[in-house]
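Researcher: We're reviewing a set of sequences before deciding which ones to prioritize for further study. For each one, I'd like a predicted 3D structure that I can look through quickly. This is NYN domain-containing protein. If possible, include the structure in token form so it fits the rest of the review sheet.
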Amino acid sequence: MKEYLILDGYNVINGWPEIRKIAEINLDEARRALIDLMAEYKSFKGIEIIIVFDAYLVKGTKKLKERLKGVEVVYTKERETADSYIERLATELGERNYVSVVTNDWAQQQIVLGSGGARVTVRELVLDFNAAKGKIHRKSEKLGRINSNSISKNIDGEILRKLEKFRKE
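Model: Here's the predicted structure for NYN domain-containing protein, in token form for your review sheet.
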């Protein structure tokens, strides 16, 4: 049983303060920022992440799926909303997997809950992302201290002097 996290891309961009600031200047850059953050989140959580961007009003658009940095990114086709795509995908994946959908859209949250999925608000995602990032930072600091301190403490002083002499030569 896999775990999937499906994001309503533009909804998340508009609900994540740091990314929203980027979007006010450059929407493409905001999409890239979200993909980068979710690639990092995927690495920590070990779950499948799918970001869905709405191309409903873009004339002639065909559905586009691509994998960027380990994250699946979907642009819906013309006249297909991200909401309808996400609802269908969540129902389909939810038959055999654990599915959560990230959106602040109340109606979409209700549909996801009705289909057996879990809903996550953008605020909850941001809080969990920041907590995960904090854990990674603390763990790497701890490992750095352990690695730098434990070697010199566990090697005989004479051997350390010889190694230092060898290093300088």
